[in-house]
Amino acid sequence: MKFFKEIFKIPEALAHCDIPCGIYETNTLLVSAQTVIRMVEVMESIPMDKPSLKDRNNFIRCVRVKEDHAQICEEQLVTLWADFFKPEHIAQFPDLHDKVWRAIKLASENKLDVNIQKAKELLVACREVAAMFDQVKVEPKEDLSGSVSDNPDAFKKKLLG
Amino acid sequence: MKLFPVSMFVVRGKSMIPDYKPGDYVITFNWTDVRAGDVVIFKLNEKNYIKRVRKTLKGLVEVAGDNEKESSKIGPVKRSDIIGRVVLLY
Question: Which GO terms describe its molecular function (chain B) (predicted)?
Fold first, then answer.
C-alpha cells in the first residue's frame, strides 16, 4: 500500500462542509468559552498541597477539557471570520477584525495559562463577536433539507432548473 | 458510467468521524447505484467530497456528514456527480 501511495497521487475527498451551506451559529463558541472558565475554576479548587490520586486525575481531565474547548473557540472564531463575515460587515463593524483577532489570541492564551481573568476575557471577547454575528445574521428563507420528501417534484425542478 | 470501476481517495476533514477520520484511505466502487446509508464520494466545484446518503430521489441524492458538529445537511447532489460508493476503508 505504501508503494501505491508513493507512486500514485491519491486525490483528496473532503469531509467538511466547504459547500456554502449558510448555516452558522455562535452557541458552540459561547458554551466553549464558558467551559474554559469553569475548568479554570475547578482547577483552582483542586488542592495543590499533597493532592490525592483522584485530585491529580481530575486536574489532568480539566486541563484536557480546557485545551479542547479553547481549541473549539479558536476554530469557531476562524470559521465565522473566514466564512461568515463579509466585506459589508467590516464596513458595518470597523473593529471586527481586531475583535475577532483578540478573541482568537485569548483562546490561544487560555491554552497556555490557567488564569481566570483571561478565561473571563475570552468569554467577553466571544460575546462581542457573537453580538456582531446576531446583528447581521439572516435566517435561511427555506429549509431545503425537508423539501425533498415534502414536495419532491418542485424541489427537483428548482435544483435541476 | 465511470471509466474505472474503482477509485482511491484520502479523507480530509472531520465531518465523517467516527467512521472516517482525517488521513483514512478509502476505495470506491464506481459501477453501482447508491442507496440511503451508503457513503459516497461526489464531485462538486472541482472538489471531491465524502458524505453519507440520507435520501435518494430520481436524479438526486441528498447527502450529509455523520459528525453533525462538523457538517451541516448540505442538501442534494446530482446522481451524475457521484463518483462511487465507498466499499473499503484502510
Answer: serine-type endopeptidase activity
Q: What is the ipTM of this complex?
A: 0.80
Q: Where residue B1 falls among pLDDT bands split at 50, 70, 90?
A: low
For chain A positions 28-57, those within 8 Å of chain B (CB to CB) are: 28
Question: Looking at the partner chain, which of A4, A13, A19 has a beta carbon nearest the beta carbon of B74?
Answer: A19
Considering only CB atoms, A18 lies closest to which of B47, B73, B90, namely B47
C-alpha cell at A17: 462542509
A149 touches chain B (CB under 8 A): yes
- Looking at residue A1, its pLDDT comes to 59
Q: Pick A23-136's CATH classification: 1.10.10.1100, 3.40.50.720, 1.20.120.400, 1.20.210.10.
A: 1.20.120.400
Q: Please, are residues B31 and B77 in contact by the beta-carbon 8 Å criterion?
A: no
Decide if A152 touches B, using CB distance below 8 A.
yes
Q: What is the pLDDT of residues B3-26, one digit of tens each?
A: 788 999 999 887 888 888 888 999
- Which CATH architecture group holds B6-89? Ribbon (2.10)
Give the residues of chain A that fall short of pLDDT 70. Answer: 1-7, 16-23, 138-161
Burial of A7 (0-12, 13-18, 19+ CB in 10 A): exposed
Could you tell me if B24 lies within 8 Å of chain A, comparing CB atoms?
no
Is B49's Cβ below 8 Å from some Cβ in A? Answer: yes
Q: What is the mean pLDDT of chain B?
A: 85
- Give the Cα separation of A59 and A72 in Å (integer): 20
